[in-house]
Every structure is written in C-alpha cells, then in structure tokens.
Amino acid sequence: MKVKKLLLIVIVFTAIVFVAACEKEEDTNRNGYDYLVLVNKYSQLPDDWEDKVELVDAKNAWDEDIQLEKEAYDNYLKLEAALKKEGVSIVLDSVYRSVQEQQDLWDEWAADPEKGLDYVKKFVAVPGFSEHHTGLAIDICLMVDGELVFDNDEMIEERDIFEKIHKKLADYGFILRYLENREDSTGYTYEPWHLRYIGSKKIAKYIMDNDLTFEEYLESVTDYNKYPEAAKYRIETTLKKEFEEKTYKDKISNVRFDVKKIYTSKDAKDDSTIKGLELGDKDLAFEVEYQLLPQEGIDYNTLIVTDGKYNEELGWVTNINRLGVIRYENGSYTVTQLDTGW
Ligand SMILES: [Zn+2]
Questions:
Q1: Looking at 195, 220, 245, which one is the last position of a domain?
Q2: Cα(256) to centroid of ligand 1, in Å?
C-alpha cells in the first residue's frame, strides 16, 4: 500500500513537472528575443536583433569558423546525433550571416563590372531580408558514402535521406522552411537543406505534421498579444495587399516592411492615443517603415507619398515613420489608416 502511494506521488509529481516544462516551452519569447521571428523577402530583421542574439562558434563542413544562435546549435547537435543513429550524416554549411556581411557582398558585386547593380538586384538577398541574419537558419550538407554532398542540385536528388531528416526536425524544435511547390507562400523554391529553429517542439510538430509553411502558421495564429510575430505577419500581408491591389496597382513590383512597433487592444489601457483608436480584439495599430520598388519604366515620383525618399542606388522609395491601423471586419482585414507620424 505504502509503495503504491509513493508511486502515485511520484507519478503526480512527474506529471506536474512535465506540464510545467511544456508550458515553459510554449513561450517562444525568451533569452531576450522571439524565436518565431519572421524574416523573408518583404519582412525585415528587427533593428535590435543583432545586438541581442546570442551567437556561439562552430565549424562547418570545410572546417571554417562559423557562428549560430546558441540554443539552435545545441538542438542542431542533438538532431545530428539522433540522425547518426539512423545512419544519416549531416554537416553544417551556411548559418549566421550578418547584415553587414550581406551589405559588403552587395556592394562588392554591384561595383564589379562583370556583375553590376542589375545583377545584384536580381540574385543577391537584400541586406536585412535574409533569414540567415537571425542565426536560427541552418543550411546543412550531407555525407553520403564518405563523400561530402553540398551542391544544391545533387542534394535535391537525395530524397530518401532528406525524408529521414525532415521526420526528425520537430523533435528538436526545427522546421523545414522552404517547402516544395510553396514559392507563393515563402518566396523561395524548395530547399530541403534549409532548416529553421523556432524554439518550440510543439509548434514545430504542428507545422511539420500539417505540412504548413512558416507564413501559413503565422497566418493561422490570432492571439496577437501572445504572438507578436503573427501580428507582424498580419500587418505586412494586409499592407502588401492594399499597396499591390489598390494604392499602387501596376506601379510597384515589390514592397518591403520594417514594422517598428505593434499595438493591440490590450495596449489601450496604458496609452491614450491607442485608446482613442478604439481597437477591437483582432484590430492592430502599428508603426512601420516601408520601401516601394517601382515597376520598370514607372516614374518613382508617382509613388512618393508625403515623406517618401528615393534611394538612387537601390531604386527604392522609402517611407518612414508611418502610423497605421488595420481592422478586422466581415472575416477579413483592411487598412483603415496610414498616417505620417502620430
Ligand atoms: Zn539557407
């Protein structure tokens, strides 16, 4: 009887610890930054990210010094070990790349007469808009029969090996970032080697089990107080749609955002300006800077709105310090306000 009682206590205690651990893991905002950070072709790396992110040193397949985010690396090593037990050998390739490094590459190639600005604009990721800036993105390569396989075309052929790798990702908090035939959602073609650490095994499992892109996952989340990156995604996609389909129809080829601040209805009690906006639960107010890329042959002057500036070198029209509001009505979101300053 005594033993049974003790066993019961142990079980209950273990269950409590387990539940507590799960709940703790659910908070992806830890270590001073948000592991769900969204960086893609139109969503910029947060300004303070590089000051905050904790990077550790590692070596890549060619024994070169590389860096990546601490927790992502710890979990990568666990993934690597688990795969080794199944006879699959993965090795690090490209990981963290600073915005400055990307800028240097951009400048160097733009000045190169063999390449030039047009080439760079087409083929080089815009500084600030590569997921590799986060330190959470990992490109791997493979060891197959003792040979290093790192060429993209050759890697894509290794479907069976990548299937085994992808099955294990969520157990360590990783997702496959650029799914096959999902360029419409991610902006990238299939990259079986590009892994992304998101800091939650539970969310990673949900994304992988449901075959979602990271963007689709963020779109499905509506608790904007708990998940600011979902709010950011909502703001960016709503503005993008507004600009591309209404405001600058046929005049722009692209738009990029740097969301500086997000306000939800919950923020109203601390801020009288927000209170005045009378935000509903699903409504969002925000501060944003954005860049418009004119279509070829379009006079950029037609895009400049109030505080816009034209960047000759990049060919962008940059708009700064705009306050915006999007509201949820009849099942969809619309931009109801986009002012200069407050
Ligand atoms: Zn990559």
A1: 220
A2: 20
274-283 confidence digits (pLDDT tens): 888 999 999 9
What the block records as the tokens of 268 is 């109203």
Catalytic residue from among 191, 216, 244, 289: 191
Dist. CA 109 → ligand 1 center (Å)? 20
Q: Is 191 a catalytic residue?
A: yes
Residue 86 lies in a domain: yes
Distance from Cα 299 to the centre of ligand 1, integer Å: 35
**Six-digit token string for 280:** 């509903």
Q: Assess contact for 255 and 292: CB atoms under 8 A.
A: yes
Q: Which helix (H) or strand (E) holds 317?
A: strand 316-329
pTM across the whole model: 0.88
Q: Residue 134 in contact with residue 37, Cβ under 8 Å?
A: yes
Let me know whether 212 and 273 are in one domain. Answer: no
Q: Is residue 240 part of a domain?
A: yes
138 CA distance to ligand 1 centroid (A)? 6
Shared domain check, 37 and 109: yes
133 and 48 in a common domain: yes
Could you tell me if 244 and 252 are in contact, meaning their C-beta atoms sit under 8 angstroms apart? yes
- The pLDDT score that the predictor gives to residue 306 is 66
Domain count, the chain: 2
